[in-house]
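Fig. S4 source data, part A: sequence.
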Amino acid sequence: MTDGNLHLLGVTNDPTISQVLHELDSSDGWSVVLYRDSARVFSTSIERIHLLLLDETVTGANYLSIVRRARRRFPEADIVVVGGPKSDDVRVGDKREGVDYYFERPIEADQFRLAMGHRLKMSALRTAAGIVGRSLQIEEILEAILQVAPTEVPILIEGESGTGKDVIARAIHFASRRSAEPYVAINCASLAEGVLESELFGHERGSFTGAVAQRSGVFERANKGTIFLDEVGEMSPNMQVRLLRVLESGEILRVGGVKSFRVDVRVIAATNRSLSRAVQDGRFRQDLYYRLKGVNFHLPPLRDRKDDIPVLTDYFLREANVKHGKSVRAIEKDGLRRLMGYHWPGNIRELRNVVETAVVLAPTGRITPELIETQLGDAASAEGNLLPVPLHRSKDEAEREMIYGSILAMHRDVREILALIRQAAEGEPLGTMKEVFPEGAEPVQEGVQTLSNLERTAIQEALRASDGNRRKAAELLGISERTLYRKIKEYGLV
């Protein structure tokens, strides 16, 4: 069954919950279907669920297993659980398993109606804007969008390249009172000053060579709607003056024109660098900065919201399958762990590229850890790693060089590397070489340390720095747990 509705599927036998959900049916495009048996969730003919509600009185303590299955079947759905009181630690654990929101009993109809109405708005916004991610940071951003979007305050979005600033800008437009009007975006860094001026404000016929007809600019085309100025910090001083004049007066003058006219637009600006620092350095006008910065959104880099990596990975995998006509089902667990351990300098854009390339190259229905290592190895090599991932070596040689690359990329001197690992893990100051190398480890000697000894020493230090936690040790070394187990056995480090 497919249609244009937003689908809410509920599993409950509570009359209060059922009444409230039925009242919400058909509100803002929602279609509500309720079951009394959780098994019906996985036999439904509805192809896409946008919100799933699970009542613990029906599911029992087994609700997390249903959540995990539902995440696989309906990866984009918001999942809400209604149940008894739970500690903060349990709530955090449930969040990691895929529960987006937890309603605690007793349920009072008006309170539940208000809360569910808000969750429906959050889910509808996530769907409309294509926002993928379920971390606390994403929840906070969605909440902020719902709060400020209906106002007319200008918004400045800051964040590294690839963090999704354009997605958030479009979400703000979707949630605003201007959503039925035009949304026009322009990248201010991609155009020369003269071209940017014409693109923003338009030009009259004959105003310059090649201007054979009058042309509207993005401010004019976005009238009554929203304009998104991406990389606004790259504007020249002259363009900053012209933009400030438009924002202050609400009027634009086409290039070569003699008469200005009014426009009504909401401006959302974005930058991948600190505009406040650019103001301090004299590279950006302070008055323009305050005109743009009514409300500031700061998008965290992917490395600071790694809980979103599995959801994003699944989304990009399905997207790449459709785009390239593939049928790759999943990424193996060790491969996903490698994605979770990577630092993602290119953020979401880089993750999409890695997953898409892996889907294209995958010879089977699953993406192996080795294929992920190859993709991340190529990315790391581009950043200056000393030892790129080899393509035509034995598996053992390839895994060994991955370990060397992981270590040597941090520093050329192994002794300093191990000291840094220990300081990061234990907070201890660097002391003598005896302190840096544990009992039985072989300290590096100029010109005589073998690669096997280097590998053995690195594994010992990683295990020591992680208090014997092999998963954390593997992450420190940038290898899979399976590889680490084999190396521990190989070197007798059990």
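Fig. S4 source data, part B ends here. Residues 380-395, 404-449 have pLDDT under 50 and may be disordered.
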